[in-house]
Amino acid sequence: MADLPVYTDPDPTGAELLATHPHLRMDATCGLMLEGVALNAIADAVGTPCWVLGGGTLKRRLARMRAAMRDAGLDVGIHYAVKANDHLAVLDLIGREGYGADIVSGGELARTQKAAIAPARIVFSGVGKTDAELEQAIGLGIGQINVESAEELAIISAIATRMGRTARVTLRVNPDVDAKTHAKITTGLAANKFGIPFDNALGLYARASSLPGVQALGFSTHIGSQILTTGPYRAAYARVAELVRAARQAGLDVSTVDCGGGLGISYRTEPEGQPEALAGAIKAELGDLGVRLAIEPGRWPIGPAGVLLSSVILRKEAGMDVPFVITDAAMNDLARPSMYDAWHGIVPLAPHAPGQAVAATHVVGPVCESGDTFARDRLLPPLARGERIAILDTGAYGSVMSSTYNSRPLAAEVLVEDGTWQVIRPRQAVKELWQDEIIPTHATEQA
After folding, report:
1. Residue 231's pLDDT band (boundaries 50, 70, 90)?
2. Binding-site residue set for pyridoxal 5'-phosphate
């Protein structure tokens, strides 16, 4: 597992960040634009903090992933990982474009049904599916349940048999492959909670093939998130291919291999993962098996499509070696920097003169935690009170991980598509923070 990142090269400049984000550009008059829409205009109308998502960018990136698989001669089902961003507007777009969904909870399953994604195009992953969630999934006849343990397999068989239904399953194999990513987002090591130990998988697959209420389809794997090279994928897929061949030699039918997700994006200067390279890895290790293939991308298609807009509350510099820019966005909005020490690009919304001086700046939120920090020693032009910034690459694991910590209402969300924008979630009203809270009757009587 990778340690926390230590960067030795200079941070990218604003211009360098925009060069790697083609859906963003700086207009000399309107300032920062996303898919041709001025972000300042959205902030003027909706306020900050505010999430803005580019629907066109999401569609283009998904289309590139689909084309990469097709050009490699592969027929691969693409199931968007709902956990990356589960907004109904996103799921509606996913469904309209003909993609499936990868879910990890009953709530996500309900969202896919609200968005009219066909149950047959849904894959259910996750290490701890409840009986109620499994009943919901089996009752709908979803396409596939990725089984994470021998214990879960027995539960699925019992539930499906009781319901008089058949659950289509793959066994999620833990290949004990190090994806060389952050310790909190790696999932394919033997020490992780996910999946079935590789050495147990063949025997358990034979058992699955004979259980009532279960149709054993094959194997699945998922080794982590933010993976930038194909080496870990090839190592994991080679082990899965070994299992497929061994199962067939034992007389067992294998029709499906689910390759998981985890392809990474460029948050800083790292080259992002390439769908074409992923397709090559799948073809090299699994292409001759004659199985139905699937992938579960989340971060790669939607991460770069989103930004978080924020305004400067104040600039604190008196007596400071490095000034603090305190913003109205905070760790309750974007948790990744405090949770993962994640690096996100920061670009002012206003156009700044070429060659304008930049200086080291700490960008922090107002929450009463030292961890409420978006950037330290970031080279930025002077940001005065009231100026606005965009925090980049927040389309994945951004709004979906928000909370109301410090009684801060959830931020508004906006979708940009075809040159227009629409609010897809209004800013939460303060009174909504407690609308479902109940003061016990005895407490009011005593008062």
Report:
1. very high
2. 262, 296-299, 397
